[in-house]
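Give me C-alpha cells for this 194-residue protein.
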Amino acid sequence: MTDTEFAEAKQFWLMFQANETFKAVQQACLELVHSGISDASLLYYPLIAGIICLYGKPFKRSAGVGKLPIEMVPEEQLDLHKSLLVIRDKLYAHSDAQSVKFGQLHMNELRCYRWPNEGGYFIDRLNIAPSYFNLVAELAAQMTEKTQYHVDKLAKKFTYRAPRRLGEFLLNIQDQNGPLFTQVEPARPRERLA
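Here you go.
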C-alpha cells in the first residue's frame, strides 16, 4: 500500500467506527427520553454512564488510527461536548480519587454523615435529568451527519479497491506492507442463495 492508501484506510476505519458510535448514542438517548425511565430508577445510572462513555469513544486515542479532531464538533455544541468528555473521563470511565466539582456538587468524594437517627457513608453521583439527553441526541445526530460525509467519500474510493470475489474481507489498518483487504472467515454467517 502507498502511504496515502494506508492513511485513507485508517481514516475510513476511524470515520466508520465513529459514525456507528454516534448513531448508537443518538438512538440510546431517544430511547432513554421516550421510555419515561426516571433518574430514580436503578437502571438510570448505568444507562447514562454507558451513553456518555460511548459518546466520548471516538474522541479518545485509538491505537493505530488516532482520534476524531475536536474541530469536527459544531462550534455551537462545543460546551456540551466538553462537558460530556469531562463527565466521561472524571466520573464514569475512570475512578480518579479526586473531587470533581460541578456547580455546588462535589463528586467522587467519600463522605460520612451522622444525624440523630442514622449515619453512614456515601459518594455522590451526578444526577443528570433525562431531558438533558435530548441535547445529547441532537449533538450525536450532528456528529453522525459529519462522519457520514467522510464515510461516503472514503467508501467511494474503496469501492474500486475492494475485492470482486464473494466473501468477507478485513480492511488492513495494521500493516502498510500488506494487502489493502484480506479474506477472512465470515464474522456473520450469510444465508446461501438458492
